[in-house]
Design a protein that fits this description.
mainly alpha; 62% helix
């Protein structure tokens, strides 16, 4: 028959850390999926200067 011993406190800390890492990973997956736009270059300066530098 199994003993009625309590689990080691380090085991509980390990499980909590793994659950935290899983939650962070799921958050990053959802956040990245929601913000995956195409990066567009930003050209600084007046319009003609910026257009001339773009074609150079």
């Amino acid at each position: 028959m199994a003993g009625k011993d309590r689990p080691n406190p380090l085991y509980i800390v390990f499980l909590a850390a793994m659950l935290l890492l899983l939650a962070i990973g799921a958050f990053m997956l959802i956040w990245g999926s929601a913000h995956n736009g195409v990066p567009l270059p930003t050209l600084k300066g007046p319009g003609l200067y910026a257009r001339g530098m773009f074609h150079a």
